[in-house]
Amino acid sequence: MSENIMGSCLCGKVKYEIKNKFERFFLCHCAQCRKITGSAHASNLFGDPEGFNWTAGEKIVKRFDYPNRGFTNAFCGECGSGVPYLNQSSTAIVVPAGSLDTEPKFTSSSRIFHVERAEWDKLADTAEIFSSFPHE
Ligand SMILES: [Zn+2]
Ligand SMILES: [Zn+2]
Q: What is the pLDDT of residues 12-29, one digit of tens each?
């Protein structure tokens, strides 16, 4: 099973494993992905549904399917962290990269809907960098 990669939510009640071979890695800056993640962009890997298994907490996963354009949000019902889901066309498991516990292997990566990138995200390019909380 060394070719599998594990993931989990923040509280640890939801856990999964998936084959560590992802065809695409999309950083999506569209308005809907910003709403879903509450952040600058979604960071989604696309994996093979055959290679995916919940190892804990499947019953507390909540799923919301947006009526337009196939947007979905899946999250731990306890802590709200994003977790994987089967896309609405059942062709791929969409894995929020931040839910993985180690580094994924992927063959291509793209920033998509970059034209919809938030203005505040552009300003953040010049943000001061600290290794932890800023010091005085
Ligand atoms: Zn959780
Ligand atoms: Zn998007």
A: 999 999 999 999 999 999
Instruction: Give 69's contacts (C-beta < 8 A, 6+ positions apart).
Output: 32
What is the CA(76)–ligand 1 centre distance, in A?
A: 5
CATH number of the domain that residue 16 is part of: 2.170.150.70
Q: Alpha helices, DSSP H only, in the chain?
A: 31-37, 119-123
Domain of 9, in residue numbers: 4-119
126 within some domain:
no
| Average predicted confidence (pLDDT) for the chain | 95
The CA distance from 121 to 119, in Å, is 5
CA 21 to centroid of ligand 2, rounded, Å:
22
